[in-house]
Task: structure prediction
Amino acid sequence: MWPYFQVLAPSVGVGLVFWLAMRAIFRADRNERAAEAQTRHELTDHDEQDADIDR
Result:
């Protein structure tokens, strides 16, 4: 049983590290896109309010 574990453990470990890294990258991207969308929305609202004031 130990030889199988010794052979498979490095692959499983590398796979786990890869999965964690990709998960972190995708979460960061999702959060960045949400923050950018929120900023764009706030700027659009601000521009519309400025247009209403100018009238």
Q: What stands out?
A: The chain has a mean pLDDT of 89. The CA atoms of residues 21 and 29 lie 12 Å apart.
